Structure formats: C-alpha cells, structure tokens
Amino acid sequence: MTAMDELPALQTTLLTAIAAAGDEAALEALRIAALGKKGSVSALLATLGKMSPDERKVQGAAINALKDIVSAALVTRKSELAEKTLTVRLISETIDITLPVRPSGLESGRIHPITQVIDELTAIFHDMGFAVADGPDIETDEYNFTMLNFPPGHPAREMHDTFFMPAKPDGTRHVLRTHTSPVQIRTMLTHKPPIRVIIPGRTYRCDSDQTHTPMFHQVEGLVIDKSSHMGHLKWVLEEFCKAFFEVNDVKMRFRPSHFPFTEPSMEVDIQCRRTGDDIRFGEGEDWLEILGCGMVHPNVIRNCGLDPDIYQGFAWGLGIDRIAMLKYGMPDLRAFFDADQRWIDHYGFRPLDLPSLVAGLSG
Amino acid sequence: MKFTLSWLKDHLDCERPLDDIATTLTRVGLEVEGISDAAKALSGFTIAHVISAEQHPNADRLRVCMVDTGSGSPVQVVCGAPNARAGMKSVFSPPGTYIPGKKITLGAGVIRGVESNGMLCSAAELEISDDHDGILDLPADAPLGVTYAAWAGLDDPVIDVALTPNRPDCTAITGIARDLAAAGVGALKSLEIKPVAGSFPCAIDVRLDLPGNPSWCPAFAYRLIRGVRNGPSSAWLQKRLKAVGLRPINALVDITNYVSLDRGRPLHVFDVAKLTGALVVRAGREGDSLQALDGRTYTLDATMCVIADDAGPVSIAGIMGGERTGCDETTTDVLIESALWDPLTIAATGRKLAINSDARYRFERGVDPLMTMPGLELATKLAVDFCGGDASDIKLAGTIPDIDRVIDFPVSEVKRLIGADIPHYESKIVLQSLGFWISGHQGEAWKVAPPSWRPDIHGKADLVEEVVRIVGLDRVPATPLPREGHVMGPVLTLQQKRVRTTKRLLAARGMAEAITWSFIAKEQAALFGAAAGLDLANPISSDLSTMRPSLLAGLALAAKRNGDKSVHDVALFEVGQIFHGGEPGEQSMSACGIRRGLAKVNGAGRHWQGSASADVFDVKADALSLLSALGINADALQLTRDAPAWFHPGRSASLRLGPLVLGSFGELHPRTLNALDVGGTLLGFEINLDRLPKPKVKATRTKGHLALSVLQPVRRDFAFVVPSGVAVGDLIKAARGAQKDLISRVSVFDVYEGKGVGEGQKSVAIEVTLQPQDKTLTDAEIDTVAAKIVAEVTRATGGSLRS
C-alpha cells in the first residue's frame, strides 16, 4: 500500500478528530499532530523529496490538498469553539436590568414656578423690545409713594398695608416696597427715554390669608417715549396674555379704574371658563381680573424730571404668583413660600426647561 | 356703595333693562360687584286663591287644595301647611320653579297617592324671611295671578358698586345717575333742591376755634328746627335704607342717612335740649373722650377735630356723633349740621380710632363744598315734612371755599394719550354732561372747569380719562408697539445673567429651588450676624420680623419642616436678596444651598449601589461648580479657615479671591442648628453674587489657540506619609510646583489614616501627569522629575515617601 492509498483514510481520521475537538487546546494538539513538524501530514510531505518527478507531481498535489483541507477544518472548528465560548461567557454575564438607576440632577433638580414664570415673562417681553430692571426691597417713602403721586396722608397709601422700617431721628421711615412701581421712578431717573422695561420682583404687604401672603411677586411694565398711547398698551397686554397663556386668542375687557400713578387708569379682565379647579383662557363666559394699568400720570413723569407734554407712556402691574397659579394650577399661594420638597418636585420645572419663544414657553 | 334701582330712577329717567344699566356702570368705571334682584329670583311666584282645602285621604297632616292661579282652570296642590284653608290668598309656584329657600327646582308629583301640580309657599321658601310656620297668608284684595314680588314691592333690585377712591361724587346716587346719563342710558332729572325759608333766627352759636388748623373746618352751616315730633320715618324711606343695609333709627337720623346716600352729603343732628351752651369746633384736648353712637367710647387727642359743648365733646367731627346729644323720640328741637371737614384729618382720625362710618367714607374722599347749603335745605325739607316743626334761618361759620379750577385743554390731548380719534364735539358733550364747564371752539385749546363735586380732576390727563371712560375703552384700537429697527440684542445685566445661570446650575446638581420669606425671626437673624436696623417696625408676626442677613436660616428651617413631614433627604437652594443695612440698596444677591441626610450630589436617598450621607465635600463641590460656571478660575481661589461663626470651625472654609471673600461652605455649627431647633447635620454654602469680579471684556469671541501635544503623557504614582495636620491642598501645590512646565496635573487618589501608618500621620497617594512638550521623556529624565517631586513635597510637608 502506498502512502497515496492512505490519504483518504488519514483525511477521514483527521477531520473526524477535528470535528470532535472539545476546546481550543485539543484543537491545537490536533493541529500539531497533523501539521506540526512531526505531524502526520508533514511526514507525508517529507516523503515527496524521495520521489520521482512524475510521482512527486501527482503525490504532491494530493498531499497539499489534504493539508489545505485539514487547515481549513482547523480554522472552522476554531471559530466554532470561540463562538461557543463567547456564548457561554455572555450567558454567565447576564445582569438584572430591572435594577433602578440613580437619576441625575437634571431629572431630580427643580426650578421654582416663580423663577420659571419670570423667565417666561422675560422671553415674551424681550421680543417686544423690553429690558429687565430691578431695584431694592427696602425703599424710601418718597419712591414708593410720594413720587408715584400718592400724596402724604392720602387714604390710597393706607390701602397698601405697608411694612415700615424703624423711624429715623428726622421722623422719616423707609418701607418694604409695596409694589414694584418705585423701580419705574428709579428707571426714569437714570435712563433717557425711550424706555421699555419690565420689573419683576418681590413686594411686601402686611396681609395674610389664603390669597394674600406678606411677601409676593409683581411684574411691572413701563414704556416711556414720545408717542406710546393706550392703543399700544392694549396691544402689548393682549399679545402678552396670548403668549403667556399659550392660546391663539384671548378676549380682554378693559374697565376704567383708578391708580394714583396712572391717568387714565384701567383694570383688565380676561375671558375664561372655569370647570372645577381648571381654568381655560380664550373661551367661556367668566371674566377674571388680572391686572391694572394706565397711562403714566403726568405728575409721575414730571417728578422724574421729564416734561409730560413731550414724554408719555404707559405702565402696568400684575401678580406673578397669581398668573403662575392661573397657568399651572397651584391652588394655594402660601405653599409657594413653604419650601416643601414635595410641592417643589410637583410644581417645579426641570433645569433644562428653558422657556423660549422659539421652542415654546412650556415646551 | 349700594343703592336700589328705584332710588336711582328718582334721578335718572331710564327705561333700559337692569342688565344694560349694570354693564354701563362697569364700563364707565363704576364696577358692579353684585346685584340682588328679588324680582328675578321670584319671577315664578304668583298670587293665587285657595278654592278648597280638603283633608288628604292618606295623610293626617296634608291637605289637598284646589288653587285658582288666575289662569282659569284650578290646579290641584298637596300642601302640608297647618294654615292652608279655603278662601285664603297665598303664593303659588308651578312645577319647574326654583325654590330659593329650599335650593331645589320644584317638580310635579304624586304625594301619598294624590297628584300635586305645584306648591303653596311660605316666606322662608321665598327667602324673604325666616317664617316657615305656614304658607303666606295674603290680604283678600291681593290681585290674583300677579307676580308676588311685584305686589309685595320686592321688585327693587339692589346694585352694589365698588367705588375707586377718586370718585367721591359717586358716593351720591345722584352722582351715579349723572355718569349713567352721560353714558347715554337715560336722562338726568333735575337735581334742584328748593330752599326752606327760615321763620326765625337761629339762637344757637357755633364757633370755629381752630388756631393753626383753619383748614380742618372751612365751613359749618346749621339751622334749628323747633317743635318736631320724631318718630319712625315713612315706610318708603325705611324700605330704601333697609335695602341698602342700613337700620332705620328714627325720622331725623334716617333723614341724615338718606341725604348722605342720595346726595353724598353727610349731616349730623343734635338734640338741642341735650346741648349745654354753645358749640365749638376745636382740636381734641387731653382728657377728651366721647361715647359715640356706636356705643363705644373713644379717647380723643390733639390731632383730631371735635365738636364740643360746655360739657365736652359731642361729636368726632365728620366721623361720628355722640350718644349724649343724639336725637330720639323725645327730641323736639333739633340742630342740623352741614359742615366741611378736611379729608386728611378725617382719614387720619378714622384710622386712629378704627371707625369706618359712612360719613368718614365720604369726607375722606372729598365732599362737594357746594352741596353744603343744598344738603342742609333738603334735610330741612324732609324733617319738616316728616316731623313738622319750624325751621330757623341758616347760619354759617367760616366760608364755603372757592373751588374754581380752570384747566387749559388742547383737545388733541385725547388722541395723543389714547391713540383713537374721538370727534371733538363728542368729547365736549361728554364733559358737559358730566357737569364740566367748557369755553372754546373746535380745534382750540379749551378752557375747562371741573364741577365742584369732582375734586379728583386736576389736569389734562384727568379730562382725557373722563372722555375715554364715557365713550368707552372699546373705542381704543389695539395698536402694535413699533418694533426696534434691528434684531433685539441681549438685555440682561451681569447680575441678572448670573442669577439665571446660578439657578439652572444648582437645579442641575439635583437641588430644588425654594423661595423663602425675606424676613425671619429676630433671634434667628442674630444667629447669622444681622446688622442693626433690619427689624421691621410693624412685623406681621414675631417669626417674620427682621430682614434676613443670610439665606441659610430660611433654608435650614425649610429642611426642618421637610424633616417633620418625614422628608429627610433634602437638597434646597435659594437665590435671593440678603440685607446688611436698613437703607435702600444695602442688600446683596446671594446664592445659597443646603444638603441634609442622604442628599448627595450624585443622588439622594438609599441606593443599592451605595448610599452615604451628604458631607462637606458635596457643598464644597456645589460652591466650586457654581463659581466655575460664573467664570471664576478655581485655581485662583483660596480656602481659608475663617468661615462665619454659624459654621463648624473645623469643617468649613471661606472662599477667597485675594482679599475678596466670595462666600463660604461647610457644616453648620451644632450650636446654630440647636438654636434653630434643627436636628442632625446640615451642610450648606452661600456665595455673594455681587462680590464676584466682573469678567474681562474681550475684543473677540475666539477661544484662543489650542496646542495639542502629539507626545504621550506619562503618569507616575507617589504615596507620601505626612503629619495628619498637613493640608492635602499644600501637598498638591508642592507637587505641582516641582516642575511647572512638565507637570500638567496632580490628582489625589487615596488618603489613609490608621493601621500601617504611624500615629499622627496619614498617607496621601497622588498621581502626577507629566506632559512633555517637544520630545519624549527618557527614563532618566522621568526619574529626575520624580526626585524633584519627592523633594518638594518632603520640604513642604515634613513628610516622606511611603516605603
């Protein structure tokens, strides 16, 4: 029997062994036994040197073919074994994906609704050309009242339930500002018209019940130039209400009223529908009073060193806490200042909920 | 201000429906707060005749009545009233009627087997009285089929308007009628008052004794009526007073109330028999007191104006009279006072004495001086009509002031302020119908004199308001505010931007934004170093008495409140004002945060991956993160152990930028927490945003060149044993300084104290990153740097390389 005759048997033996190899080490032993220096296939290749050229041609081709087949079988089996190993490893690495993760601050942190609403107001009024002004909480009587055309001793002052600071030796006493309006005065005294500002901030009145807290927030608006009139005021407020309440149309009712620092003065109601705790704007038969406004009183303009026959403009004021309650449905004003973590978690806004007119105020 | 529709119609010729009148009132600035209209509520109740009343076959207490409602065919009604009887007149309501007293809508039904098609009603069921003992028993001549409310005179709706303080004229029903007439819902009737001629001289003297304060009482008119019989006033007057919420007293008192409501002219009546000597108007004196008509006794002082006789005060001028000289059924001679009082004095006195009378309400707003005499005449006429008697001549102390004011009014002012074209003639008609006197022609500057009853009108803008409120604010078209001719640039100030960034950043670190009171309790403020002058003169309560010097107190108390509700792991922040003095502007914008329990930066509460209590390094991280976001270079900051006294001295630091203290962080002092009654440990930081330096203004927005080395960085670890008291920060600084051009980073990865390290020593392990710039480092070069690092750290700390 020639070596040639043994080739099919050897091939069968080797391929069977390769297919049966259980791990990479066994496979390597088979490779060495077949293709190693002293391997069975290598031994056959070594016999070629002693053959005649014709014989070598025939035998060489057959032995090399066997070598290729065995090599390929080794590679295939190796890959099969690797796949099997990986499968076993992956199964062993299985974890419980239901275990909870820790939320990051971006999910758990909260912005207070007042801050959010101030950011909304800033976005809306910035689009209409307004800057933001602020002023001190402790204010002079002069700025809080007198320059705003509240004469000393006038009953309108009493309606403000003012908090007072201790009287000074000369008898004067500062107040906690009862409205954001003194910032109108500060703005007019320091800025040359045209002026367009909103003034959001804390205000104080000595009053406390379900709808009044001794501290609350107001936003004041002020426009001073040589031509702005009540028609502009109406437009600004209508646009504001639509943008803020995010409705296409809002019906507003302007009623004549009285404030010492505006003339003519108006109160503004907006149309709404109440169902239970829910209020919708732009529909319904109810009217809800939301703000006071008017043309800046000539005395106020004059008090700020401007000529009311040349300069004119308008102002309005409304409660930030109140419009926050109307828009977002908080039932009780007092909870705004209680810092109850559960309340802030529920009514607060996420850190990246940035109000913008481009993306929508409330997302 | 309440009035009835019929009373209004005394002065206004008007056939318009009530709804129109109410809408117009609100439209012209007299806001209708409510209308109670019994006629509307009771429109379904008519007068009916009970034809028969038989015993109900199945119920002892019920009767089956046949009722003639006036419609022709009798209706069967089952009735439980004991007084139901054949032949009586009562009040019937058909099925479908809403019964106010029962708050139900009546249905047709079968009661104990007998059909019932309506109801006979009691007064309680109509809500006109509490009487529910039986059905209404009307006189035999009550007209069948007529609405009960109309027959009973209940059909006079009561209108309640909220008056703004600038409209004293509308404290008179005549004033309201005038506004309505101007607005076109009716015609004003003549308001003329006919004088009553005096038949004898008034023997009583009133003297004004107000040296230094003549403005307190410019005029005091009065007259005597002798021989009156003072009893109940007439039914129509009583009914009107009751309708607007006043209790009828007697004719003379009721007349003063009537004139006050009708004409806005408060009066007072004195029983002459009870006066001792002449009357004098003077300032209050030491020892003056008065038992007033409300039964209470008031102590009067020199800031108040009083009317007194020889026996002492008889009236708090313009506010309330005294009991001693009041009129009652025995009064035969009465002195009627019609005086002018100074609004500011009245307001101050009323406030001081806490008296809210109808007279004060009017005088402090400003009573029409020209109504002084006519008001007195009207009262006289009514008094003589009701009570008989003879009136004296009128006497006047002082003088009725001249109120002539003329305003130059370019009529173009209307368009300038409201932006709408109102025809000039229309403006003129409006002003004239409100009683203004106008001289001038179309297109000119008019001369306008406001009427005596409008003390609120002083200038052009006031006149514009009068025009626009009467023609209607809906005549003003909404007009877009012109846009600036460019894209809106940024408008926020540096502080406003910093406040925004701060809030969003702290929220992103898992904290919840709180807004707490700007004032805290005095003793709490003291714990946080409150300056003098921060106490309110009139705090609303003792725990909200002092302007806060720090936000930490409010947040610490908030943490406690949350803990009391079993919310223990809280991370709260506030950005708000703190106060360092009582003058305007002595305040700063502060950013403050607290952490408590397990509220760490990387998540609050217990967690399977590990839970730990928040510690000083959480709030240090908060503070540094904030400063970094606000553009402060962390490397430039110094930490010093001089945090304010409310922090734990060993676990806190001040954050400094050179001489500038930006803020502090740490654990709160146990004594401070104890004083606030806050248990456990509380971590906090507070940064004064106003102290941060302004960023440098750069000419361009480019970020500067980025040089990325192509050479591999080299990392080497070192462990040093140093005395426990050595600050790791100093060690890091020493290591960094060993060769600044090569060492790009030093990080601490282990700090250990305990077994294996000597007593009083600690081991600090650092990783040093070397970043070569122009060539790869050789081993020898690396060893040289390593030796320098060891030498520097050893020199700076007195420690040694751990072996």
Automatic annotation (TrEMBL), chain B:
According to its UniProt record, what is one Pfam family this protein matches?
A: tRNA_bind
Catalysed reactions, semicolon-separated = tRNA(Phe) + L-phenylalanine + ATP = L-phenylalanyl-tRNA(Phe) + AMP + diphosphate + H(+)
- Where is the B5 domain positioned along the sequence? 402-478
**Recorded family membership:** Belongs to the phenylalanyl-tRNA synthetase beta subunit family. Type 1 subfamily.
Q: What is its EC number?
A: 6.1.1.20
Task: Give start and end of each TRNA-binding domain.
Answer: 39-149
How does the cofactor bind to this protein, according to its record? Binds 2 magnesium ions per tetramer.
What PANTHER family does the entry give? Answer: PHENYLALANINE--TRNA LIGASE BETA SUBUNIT, PHENYLALANYL-TRNA SYNTHETASE BETA CHAIN AND LEUCINE-RICH REPEAT-CONTAINING PROTEIN 47
Q: Which InterPro entries match?
A: aa-tRNA-synth_II/BPL/LPL, B3/B4_tRNA-bd, DNA-bd_dom_put_sf, Fdx_antiC-bd, Fdx_antiC-bd_sf, NA-bd_OB-fold, Phe-tRNA-ligase_IIc_bsu, Phe-tRNA-ligase_IIc_bsu_bact
Q: Where is the FDX-ACB domain?
A: 709-802
Q: What is the lineage of its organism?
A: Bacteria, Pseudomonadati, Pseudomonadota, Alphaproteobacteria, Hyphomicrobiales
Please give a single GO biological process term from the UniProt record. phenylalanyl-tRNA aminoacylation
Q: Show which residues constitute the signal peptide.
A: none
- Listed GO MF terms: ATP binding; magnesium ion binding; phenylalanine-tRNA ligase activity; tRNA binding
- Official protein name in the record: Phenylalanine--tRNA ligase beta subunit
Quaternary data: Tetramer of two alpha and two beta subunits.
Where in or outside the cell is it found? Cytoplasm
Q: Which cofactor does it need?
A: Mg(2+)
Entry keyword Aminoacyl-tRNA synthetase: yes
Q: Which organism is it from?
A: Candidatus Raskinella chloraquaticus
The lineage's top-level taxon is Bacteria
Keyword list, A-Z: Aminoacyl-tRNA synthetase, ATP-binding, Cytoplasm, Ligase, Magnesium, Metal-binding, Nucleotide-binding, Protein biosynthesis, RNA-binding, tRNA-binding
Q: Which residues cross the membrane?
A: none
The answer on whether this UniProt entry bears the keyword Ligase reads yes
Binding positions (Mg(2+)): D456, D462, E465, E466
Provide the Gene Ontology terms for cellular component: phenylalanine-tRNA ligase complex
